[in-house]
Amino acid sequence: PSAIFLKDYSVPAFLIDATELRFELGEEATTVHSCLTLRRNPASDNATAGLTLHGAELELLSLAIDGNTLSESQWSVSEETLCIAEVPDQFELRCSTRIYPQKNTSLEGLYKSSGMFCTQCEAEGFRKITYYLDRPDVMSVFTVEILADANTYPVLLSNGNRTDVETLEDGRTRVVWHDPFPKPAYLFALVAGDLQAVEDTFTTCNGRVVELKIYVEQKDLDKCEHAMLSLKNAMRWDEQVYGREYDLDIFNIVAVDDFNMGAMENKSLNIFNTSCVLAKPETTTDAGFQRVEGVVAHEYFHNWSGNRVTCRDWFQLSLKEGFTVFRDAEFSADMGSPTVKRVEDVSLLRSTQFAEDAGPMAHPVRPDSFIEISNFYTVTIYEKGAEVVRMIHTLLGPELFRKGSDLYFERHDGQAVTCEDFVLAMEAASGMDLSQFRRWYELAGTPELDVSGSYDAEQGRYTLTVKQHCPDTPGQTNKPPLHIPFSVALLGEAGALRLNLQGQEADSETADNTEMVLHVTEAQQQFVFSELPEEPVPSLLRGFSAPVKLHFPYRRDQLIALITRDTDGFCRWDACQQLGILEMTAAMESAKAGADYQLSADFSGALAQLLADDSLDKAMLAMMLVLPSEAYLAEVFKPVDVHAIHHARERLRRQLAEALREPLLQTYERCQDAQPYQANAEQIARRSLKNTSLAYLMLLGEEGIAQKAREQFAESQNMTDRLAALTTLVNNEDSAKAEALMSFYQDWQHEPLVINQWFQVQAASSAPGTLEKVKSLMNHPAFDIRNPNKVRALIATFCVQNAVNFHREDGAGYAFLADQVIALNRSNPQIASRLLQPLSKWRKYPEAAQQKMQAELKRILAEPDLSRDVYEVVSKSVS
Ligand code: DPP
Ligand code: ZN
């Protein structure tokens, strides 16, 4: 397999004005007839080129140009293309292919999932359906005819509007769908199955009534309410915040069990992983409800940021994904708690994306090359891409950003464009120069900011010295400085101080001038603030204004001041994390020296003060109580000794529970819910704090507390509380553990999504022997390696969220992962490659672990028939 480069991009030699497809869905095979209206692209400089179409795993049945059947000598096929050497300038190409959806385990193209036909075409799945110009800059108007047995497949769907339906004499139904909006093939979708729909309507700002339907299996009809509400909220929000109205009379969502990703934004026919659309209190946790809301909104928002304006090529993937993640994050913030949402997103970025940036697969938000595009649906493209858009928002301010997005949509509606076009629109609308800022799209790696502060009491001046540098990444060294929006405030005893920045006008200031966005653009820069009557505590990178690693030599008392007094929720939380890291560092050093470490009183004291503060958002408080995650700590300490980290962290947690026993107990009782379950911010916050308290209290090993957990498990009516109780019973090896696991399974064996949570709880347990447990669960009748949700719940949870067991010193965890990758390599390359990622990070670990991890990578590399997906990750990792 070889790489494809952005610099080699050229426009397509042909365009497809119209695409007509006819699907004859069968139980053995499916026949696809296509009729493409083609013409030479006037923008192409090759006026005599033959026609090369993409196609993979297709049986070609016939081929005709303008009604004349082609003989075999007139075309040639390779594994991934069909070439017709001589074609007119304008013509109609008819092609028939046979495919086998029932045998398609890759879940790419057309496949079957629990009795229904469905498609997944992004990024390059359409070529597994028929020969086509399967690239996003070829946009075409689709008309789709579907023929299928009327009894087995009463629901037949595709994009756009249904224009015809009839019952044929042979017992089949024939429907026709027409989508008036030209679109690339990756947005094509087809669904056929025995489905039921929950229906509603939405009236747009201009009075258009849109029919909304969520199609599910009969048994799931009671789990669609939340997704429907989220959809309507998202439609309204996009009108209000971005001025974007929906553009068709129908919007359909279909839930599918077997799905590689979360969901897919096909034009007017979104297809969803059941895990991202179904929700009800009895089966779904609060996090699950929030995920449904976020993903429904994300896919809906793609209708403008992705579909109406799409990507020119896959190197521009973040154009639609980064922007859309930013949009859905702002939406979720508006629907719930903005600070909580921000902290959750930053946590994910700092553990997962920073790790990616530091590993062998590091790539810029706009990559220069790839071997397999499926490997680039990454946290860098999505989450760092969203941070890049957020920084533009911060630099421009909300009004100019809106002007920029309006201009972007207006200029490029119906086009396939680039990240550069997005930046150009933002510049044109705002008048701001983003030339240096563009480096965020080009450079991989996480920039580091080294900041120091000094106070001159005589002059009343405070000077911040800011140095930036970005580490080398594969193929990129000696990087130039980036344009970093650095949001700051200076805290005095009585609150944030007025900022007078010498010699530089800051352009984003709050009304009372206590917060400011500094433009960090050089390798080293100084910012001098004057008229300061006292030495301030700097509050830096407020709201996480840029995706960087910040280093500032805070004293402990300064961190505690931030924790208890800062007005920026993110900085308060982050100060807690920093103090937690100091504790962890000290605890690990003591352990190394064979000594006992005792948690510092100032830390537990600060947390006690927070627990006593009734005005604090409970969800925030819950997050502040949690020590830095093992995943984040693995980004902080080098090399990563997972066992030392785990044991030190567990000891500190227990000490914290001892120090805070009384307030935690009170909090646990105070947060009991009297109201019936609702997935609103207030209740979610309360449950989160309650269950965080319970998790701590359980570490005390007190029978009275264990009793409370057992009661909560047995009696709670919602999955959030039930699962939290189960988790703590499992993690603490409670005497009721086995029985609880068994009764949970019996209660929920008919609900695959709940059983996935059951797998997850067991796979994440740090108890010794978990690997053996996971292996035996793979033989459980509820497990199925062909279902990606189950693979994620059991195998990926073990390898990603269970560091101590995955990194067992005998290397058995690594061998287990390699075995699973090898098993999935042929059946589902995307999932295999995704699963493989933890092994690729081998360089972070101590020598002995490195060797074992590398050995497993080499074992995978030696496998015959490696998929492109797996090959790319393994080969880049071992070298
Ligand atoms: N484009 C999908 C999404 O992120 C994933 N393929 O919404
Ligand atoms: Zn997306």
From TrEMBL:
Task: Domain (Aminopeptidase N-like N-terminal): give its ranges.
Answer: 41-187
Q: Does the keyword Transcription apply?
A: no
Q: Name one GO molecular function term.
A: alanyl aminopeptidase activity
Entry's transmembrane regions: none
Q: Which UniProt keywords apply?
A: Aminopeptidase, Hydrolase, Metal-binding, Metalloprotease, Protease, Zinc
Describe the location of the Peptidase M1 membrane alanine aminopeptidase domain by residue ranges: 230-440
The reaction(s) this protein catalyses: Release of an N-terminal amino acid, Xaa-|-Yaa- from a peptide, amide or arylamide. Xaa is preferably Ala, but may be most amino acids including Pro (slow action). When a terminal hydrophobic residue is followed by a prolyl residue, the two may be released as an intact Xaa-Pro dipeptide
- This entry's Enzyme Commission designation comes to 3.4.11.2
DNA repair keyword on record = no
Cofactor annotation = Zn(2+)
- Domain called Peptidase M1 alanyl aminopeptidase C-terminal: residue spans: 557-878
| Entry-linked NCBIfam families | pepN_proteo
- Give the record's family classification: Belongs to the peptidase M1 family.
Q: What does this protein do?
A: Aminopeptidase N is involved in the degradation of intracellular peptides generated by protein breakdown during normal growth as well as in response to nutrient starvation.
Name of the molecule in the record: Aminopeptidase N
What's the source species for this entry? Answer: Spongiibacter pelagi
Its gene is pepN
